């Protein structure tokens, strides 16, 4: 991807931050199945161009496949070719065979997963408290999930987003309060830590065992693997030999085969290719169960989550009705948030008997900004943008293959430092903009 700032220079970025790509790139270079494709314009233009190209490739492959069937019959009957004409036809056969093999995943393919029946009771937090050492994660938190909730979890690193998901999944006990789970809830949990796959097991065999273990009727491992973008040769490869992104796809496949009606996704967009991401987004847009998502991919969050839990630290969780862009717009316009309330305030029901919030505590009055804090607030977003640009430069240089050992070590350390600074400044920005809204 090429970015052209005010200075006359060319920069390349290797990222799947799609809002970043759309804002900053004038050209996108796509690496796909061993080929390089150049696209003029931002991310939206890239998606359109790629869709048109794949459609054309699919048409060419379909035509080649039809001709290949006829030529295959001729090849079966043809004795050893001796004439130039016969040899030419044989060469044409192998050329058609190669074209047919390039057939992309059919455009009609969708991620397949049913949603198990959900009863009237979903999941409810009642006066939940949780802390580690001096760090408060939850404080008098109460919420009853509705059957169509699509909740995004937002907040800086270290505020407890993943811990909250672990409580949901009964992998972490509360200090006080309770979590009540309906009898018909079927969880699907995509853990950002990944899965410890068994060694020396082929992808095909692993998926076959998953399908049988989940009592999938008429299990067809090959069809399922194709839906998740696995080529034939990959299906018979040992899992240990897959790339990080391919293992993530396999992990996602395993989650979806459980037919969950309560789907919990922790950084699911990390390491997934754009085609799989698009398939996943389309599936989630039609998903009828409860969805809880943690992701740093704002494009993904904006499409999928219509309701936010904003973790502000010290056990404070704000409930916002809208997506992340809506939340930022409200803050930047410096007006009160519509349909928004602190989850630690006493509040009315979220919607008849389907959801409510309870708390006996009251939020302390917001602190006014000092002049120094106001100046900090006005400049901190620019600082975060500058750090993000440096982070992208470092990431690109680390995968360029042009650095010696000393440079790799130095830039790896700098990347860790820059990433930490981004997290710290993001947390600070959230604190300041909370004051600014007062």
From TrEMBL:
Superkingdom assignment: Eukaryota
Span of domain ABC transporter: 123-338
InterPro entries: AAA+_ATPase, ABC_tran_C, ABC_tran_Xtn, ABC_transporter-like_ATP-bd, ABC_transporter-like_CS, ABCF_ATPase, P-loop_NTPase, Val-tRNA_synth_C_sf
Region (Disordered): 335-375
SMART domains reported in the protein's UniProt record: AAA (SM00382)
Keyword Nucleotide-binding applies: yes
Comp. bias regions, Polar residues: 339-363
Keywords of this entry: ATP-binding, Nucleotide-binding
Protein name as annotated: Probable ATP-dependent transporter ycf16
Molecular-function GO term, any one: ATP binding
């Amino acid at each position: 991807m090429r970015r052209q700032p005010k200075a006359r220079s060319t920069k390349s970025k290797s990222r799947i931050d799609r809002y970043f790509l759309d804002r900053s790139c004038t050209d996108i270079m796509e690496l796909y199945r061993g080929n390089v494709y150049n696209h003029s314009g931002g991310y939206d233009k890239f998606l359109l161009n790629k869709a048109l190209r794949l459609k054309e490739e699919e048409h060419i492959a379909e035509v080649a496949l039809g001709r290949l069937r006829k030529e295959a019959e001729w090849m079966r009957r043809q004795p050893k070719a001796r004439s130039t004409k016969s040899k030419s036809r044989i060469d044409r056969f192998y050329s058609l065979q190669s074209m047919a093999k390039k057939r992309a995943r059919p455009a009609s393919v969708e991620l397949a997963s049913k949603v198990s029946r959900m009863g009237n009771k979903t999941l409810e937090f009642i006066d939940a408290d949780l802390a580690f050492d001096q760090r408060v994660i939850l404080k008098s938190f109460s919420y009853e999930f509705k059957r169509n909730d699509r909740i995004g979890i937002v907040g800086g690193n270290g505020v407890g987003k993943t811990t909250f998901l672990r409580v949901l999944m009964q992998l972490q006990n509360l200090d006080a309060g309770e979590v009540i789970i309906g009898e018909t809830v079927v969880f699907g949990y995509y853990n950002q830590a990944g899965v410890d796959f068994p060694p020396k097991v082929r992808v095909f065999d692993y998926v076959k065992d998953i399908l049988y273990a989940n009592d999938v009727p008429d299990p067809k491992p090959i069809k399922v693997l194709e839906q998740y973008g696995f080529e034939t040769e990959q299906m018979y490869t040992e899992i240990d030999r897959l790339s990080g992104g391919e293992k993530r796809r396999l992990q996602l496949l395993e989650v979806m085969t459980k037919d969950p009606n309560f789907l919990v996704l922790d950084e699911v967009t990390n390491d997934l290719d754009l085609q799989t991401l698009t398939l996943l987004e389309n599936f989630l847009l039609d998903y009828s169960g409860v969805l809880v998502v943690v992701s740093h991919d704002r494009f993904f969050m904006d499409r999928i989550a219509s309701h936010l839990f904003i973790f502000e630290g010290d056990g404070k969780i704000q409930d916002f009705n809208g997506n992340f862009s809506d939340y930022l717009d409200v803050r930047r316009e410096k007006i009160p948030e519509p349909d928004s309330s602190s989850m630690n305030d006493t509040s009315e029901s979220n919607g008849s008997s389907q959801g409510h919030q309870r708390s006996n505590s009251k939020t302390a009055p917001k602190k006014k900004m000092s002049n120094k804090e106001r100046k900090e607030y006005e400049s901190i977003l620019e600082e975060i943008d500058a750090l993000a640009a440096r982070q992208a430069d470092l990431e690109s240089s680390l995968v360029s293959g042009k650095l010696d050992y000393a440079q790799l070590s130095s830039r790896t350390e700098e990347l860790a430092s820059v990433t930490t600074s981004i997290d710290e400044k993001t947390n600070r920005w959230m604190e300041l903009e909370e004051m600014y809204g007062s």
